[in-house]
Each structure stands twice: as structure tokens, then as C-alpha cells.
Amino acid sequence: MLERPHTLVPLTFFADRYESAKSSISEDLTILKRTFQDRGTGLLETIPGAAGGTRFLPYILKDEAQEVVNKLIEEMSSDTRYLPGGYVYMSDLLGSPATLREIGRIFATQYLNQSVDAVMTIATKGVPIAQSVADFLNVPFVIVRHDTEITEGSTVNVNYVSGSSTRIEKMSLSKRSLRPDSNVLIVDDYMRGGGTVGGMISMVEEFDANLIGVGVVAESTAPNGRTIGDYTSLMRVDAENNTVVSQPGNYIEKIFN
Amino acid sequence: MLERPHTLVPLTFFADRYESAKSSISEDLTILKRTFQDRGTGLLETIPGAAGGTRFLPYILKDEAQEVVNKLIEEMSSDTRYLPGGYVYMSDLLGSPATLREIGRIFATQYLNQSVDAVMTIATKGVPIAQSVADFLNVPFVIVRHDTEITEGSTVNVNYVSGSSTRIEKMSLSKRSLRPDSNVLIVDDYMRGGGTVGGMISMVEEFDANLIGVGVVAESTAPNGRTIGDYTSLMRVDAENNTVVSQPGNYIEKIFN
């Protein structure tokens, strides 16, 4: 059940597996429910009736979320992460399973009560974020690419203006990857001008799908404002003069206040 | 403990968390150990002494592994997956959290008793595989790229011959991403001629690291043989004349026989 979050498991499954009566399973689940709630691991939702069962919705509480954000900020605030041109090295964080799990749980909490059908991101560094969020929501994720690869079949292409460079770029997504009317959550690792995220929003529209939200791990202070309206960020990270400065993003305030 | 596989958790952690004596925790763990073993979920390893504790090593048993491989083969054997030029569409499988969890568990089982320090893959479609295997082994994963991106900092570049096209291509990996002498496991989604995997093997050598193994989800029947010696594959998938033919790879035979 923990491995299949957001999926309804019928009581008969547990009864068969543990060879016990449904009533005692039901009691055990009540204990588990209380434990999860006390611990802030998630919500155990029970739906009565023949078609009913129980469903685990993982979430994170404010204190733990705050802790995760603080830890991320601390890790990011190292000048060794500074890269020429005002860029920041964060590939190591996006390659750490423990960090990714925390990021996934944080964003999954935000969309706990919304029906998300797919998580969308852009290659390459958005992929680990998307996979982790999708894992906690137990929905598929789709990868938009900068190049068109033959193994994607027919694709839908979108042109967008890269905010930081004011160049026109292209992104493509396999036609098979999204159904019309899907509810799509966009995630990415870093947002500067918002051009890439804007491109993905156009992509969602091209597929006649619905945008549910935008979540980024880090955003920079946008120099000329952003074209993206509503989004959530865990951190605000800026790199200038060989220094990296990290502060909290809008997540905690937006979700818990 | 389940969320941090391969990590030693001291008994005192459980004693503090559940406010009970170490002896009763120890009894509970024995029950858990038996349950895990009966169910084939994994191994609970207990190390005695003051520096000791308990560690969860997830694995998969032969029957379940066989089931996972059969399910993959069934899903792959659809002619709608055929793409012009003898390519196969499998992005949907690589975007399904449930499938990825199974693939991760399968490869993690193979390297259960070996010390793996990092999982290496190449962008874009290898990333979900690497993340899932790394998650089960609880080690970081690193992403080799075809392009050199500014946010990677200084990189090490390797030229390789793409087997299928006999073109010379370039791959690069951030210098910061691997420590010398690391034990590296290479994974990828699909192997044709083996040129890309061969390039990654050269990359491992460039970093003075050690190659532990190579695992691919699918391999094609190599037309002119392969340059790669030892590897593990879950499936053998060939696409010809608008048809996709899938068979078991060498995994089950290699690991369980």
C-alpha cells in the first residue's frame, strides 16, 4: 500500500494476504492511520462499501517541510557551487535519491487533493524531479525534449523564447505521451526568466490538456519580471560575483499559511 | 528504514522513536525479518554490537522477477510500438513509476552484495532507470550528456563510435560528479551496437573509477556482434517489418541459475 500511493486497495486484499477477518484488518488500519497522522507521514483514507478500500496519501507537515527547505538552502549556499556566468551547480542534489524523495514528497503534498494525471518536465535535469513527484502521486511523467529523437515517434513541437538569452528555441513532446484533457503538473529544477516553463505551458495547451500547477526546486530573482503567473518554488537561488545566495522560495508560505 | 535501503539504522533509533526497550525492538525486528523473507521483499540484516543496527536490503525472488520480465515483454510486444527505421517506442514504460520501481528492484537485487558507489547513465531515457536503481541501492546517480551544458561546470569528454551509425559522437560528464576509485554501475534503457555503453565504460576509466557492471532494460539482436563483454538485459527487443518481437534477456538465467 505504501508502495502504491493514491491507489485504492480493497480490504479483501489485506484479508487474503494476512489470512485474517476483514474486521480485524479494519482495526489494524485504524491504528496505522493514527500512527501515520501522529508521525506526519501521510493520510490513510478509508472508503466504505463493496467498492471501497483504503488508500495511502503521503504528505509532509509544515515543520518537516520547513526542515527540508532549510537543508536544501544550506546545501545550496556554498560558493563552490558558483559557475562562470552566474550559473549554479546543483547536479549532485538532483542525483541524490534521499533529496529527491524529500522534494517529491513536498510537491506531492501540494497537489494532495487535486487530480493530477501526469507530471511534465523538460530534459535533462527536470527528469529526476518529475520522476520523484510522479512516484509520490503514483501517476506517469512525460519528458519534453530540446531535440527530436527518432525513438519518440511523431512529436508536437513548440517554439518559445528563452528568457535569459532572448533566443528562440524549440521543444518537442511525443504525440503519444499525453491524452487530451489530462490534468498536468509541470515541474523543473531551475527557473530563470520562465521561458522554458512558458514553453511547457504552451505544450500543455497544444495537447488540449489542463494545467494544474507549476513547481520548481529553485528560481532566480528574475531580472525583468517573469511571464509565468502562478508557480511554487522551494528556493530562491542567485549567483553573482563568485557567490551563491539562497533563500526560501514561496512554497512554505503558499502551502501552509 | 524501508525508505533508506542499504543504510544501517541503530537499534537506539527505534528505541527512541517507539519509546520501548531495545530488547523488544529486537524481537519486533525478528518478526519483520521473517515476514520480509517469506514475502520475498528483501533481507533484514542485523549487525550486533555498539556500532551495530539493522539494515534493509530490498531484493526480488526468481518467481516475481520472472513475472516482471514477462509483463514487460507482454507490454513491449505491441506492433503499435513500431517506429519507422526499426525503432521501438518505450517512453511510456520509462514514465510509469510502478514499472520503474520493478526495474529498479530487479537490478538492485543483482548488485545486492556488491559495493556500488554510483549509478551512471546517459541522458535522456536512461535517467529514470538510473534513478530507480539508485533509489533501491540508496546511492547517487550521475548523468552523462550528449551536449555540454554550462550548468555542469568543467566536464570530462569522451569520443565514441555509435555502433548503429558508425558516426563518431561525444559524451560529457561533469568533473565534480564522480570520485576516483568509485565503484560504478552503468544502466541504460536500450542497447543496440553497444557504442553508447562502450563510451560510458571509457568514461568510467577516465575518472579512474571501477566498473561494477552494465544493465540494460532492452537489447536488440546485435547485427555485427557487440564490443561490450559482460552485461545484463531484461529483454531482447527487435523491430522489423512493422512488427516488434520481444523475448527474455539474459537476466533471469544469469542471476538465478
UniProtKB/TrEMBL annotation, chains A, B:
Q: From what superkingdom does this record's organism come?
A: Bacteria
Residue span, Phosphoribosyltransferase domain:
93-245
| Quaternary state and interactors | Homodimer.
The name under which this protein is listed is: Purine operon repressor, PurR
- Give yes or no: UniProt keyword Lipoprotein: no
Q: Could you say which protein family the record assigns here?
A: Belongs to the purine/pyrimidine phosphoribosyltransferase family. PurR subfamily.
Keywords associated with the record: DNA-binding, Transcription, Transcription regulation
Which Gene3D superfamilies does this entry report, sorted A to Z?
A: 3.40.50.2020, Winged helix-like DNA-binding domain superfamily/Winged helix DNA-binding domain (1.10.10.10)
Q: Which PANTHER family match?
A: HYPOXANTHINE/GUANINE PHOSPHORIBOSYLTRANSFERASE, PUR OPERON REPRESSOR
The family database entries (InterPro entries) matched by this protein are listed as: PRTase-like, PRTase_dom, Pur/Pyrimidine_PRTase, PuR_N, PurR_Bsub, WH-like_DNA-bd_sf, WH_DNA-bd_sf
Signal peptide coordinates: none
List, in alphabetical order, the GO biological process terms annotated in this UniProt record: negative regulation of DNA-templated transcription; negative regulation of purine nucleobase metabolic process
Pfam families on file: Pribosyltran (PF00156), PuR_N (PF09182)
From which organism does this entry originate?
A: Lentilactobacillus otakiensis DSM 19908 = JCM 15040
Taxonomically, what lineage is the organism? Answer: Bacteria, Bacillati, Bacillota, Bacilli, Lactobacillales
Task: Drop me one GO molecular function for this one.
Answer: DNA binding
Which part of the chain is the Bacterial purine repressor N-terminal domain? 1-58
